[in-house]
Amino acid sequence: MAFDPAKQIELFHAAINALDFPAIEAYFAEDATYVSNGVGDLTGRAEIMAAFRRYFDDYPDQTAENSLVETLTPLSGRSVWSVRATHSKTGKPLIREVRRRSPSTQKAASQGSRSPITRNSDQDFLFYAFRTQNRCTLLLELL
Prior knowledge:
Elements lengths: L4 H13 L3 H6 L1 E9 L3 E4 L1 H14 L4 E11 L2 E11 L6 E4 L3 E10 L6 E8 L1 E8 L2 E8 L1
Parallel strand pairs: 1-9
Antiparallel strand pairs: 1-2, 3-4, 4-5, 4-8, 6-7, 8-9
């Protein structure tokens, strides 16, 4: 069976919605990179998982919904999604909706190939690069 990045992204998001930390952790290579406007640049599975656990401690009721999941290359894909959650201590809602933007370009270096990922899009999305099947090496949040 051929590797399908879009299917793996959907399974990864299902693990996040279920708060299945062993499954979430299994998706990251030991030396993975996670780049996010919210938490900055994280390097390594342990650091990424510590951030995930802190986040879900604060937002245990998060639900995410995909409006688009697509394969870009045999080892990469992207998703456009919306998130709703409530902060466990303050009760403040967190709502991140897919939104349209004026066109912009952002670049980041892909850890595996060192080739740039260029964003020419008017939507927020997550980019996933897989080194091998089921091991994400770069999770780039372009929001």
